[in-house]
Specification:
Length: 139
């Protein structure tokens, strides 16, 4: 059976800015699937982001694009191998122009179950939640 992949399609206001943001996180652009309308960002072997200009994004749906800056449309949780990886990714996102959202109650709940997580928001308002779970069998 072939392995499964996930492609997360994200509408972006400025394709070049968004490509640069994600490249700064250490993720790679797959040039075979990148042009003036879209960029394929490879997170790992099974996860890719498709950054789509808003005009191009509308060709995939008849529904209006949500305001990802003023409202939350999705939370993209990404399991990482250590708390240090979580911190490094979040710090890189902030340095690249993202913002961090701090929720003390959420962090306290995560700590109770052996989890370390942080939240960053990319320049288009997409919310990422890298996390590490410290229990047998995690990751």
């Amino acid at each position: 059976m072939a392995s499964k992949m996930i492609f997360i399609n994200l509408p972006v206001a400025d394709l070049e800015r968004s490509k640069t943001f994600y490249e700064t996180l250490g993720w790679k652009v797959n040039q075979d699937f990148t042009d003036g309308n879209a960029a394929c960002i490879v997170v790992d072997d099974n996860i890719c982001l498709m950054l789509l200009t808003k005009d191009f994004f509308t060709t995939f749906t008849t529904r209006p694009i949500g305001d990802s800056v003023g409202t939350v449309n999705g939370l993209y949780a990404l399991s990482l191998g250590s708390a240090q990886e979580v911190d490094a990714l979040t710090d890189a996102a902030i340095a690249a122009g993202g913002t961090e959202e701090v929720n003390a109650d959420k962090r306290a709940q995560e700590a109770e179950v052996g989890m370390h997580g942080r939240t960053f928001i990319d320049p288009d308002g997409h919310q990422w939640e890298p996390f590490y779970m410290n229990y047998p069998g995690a990751n």
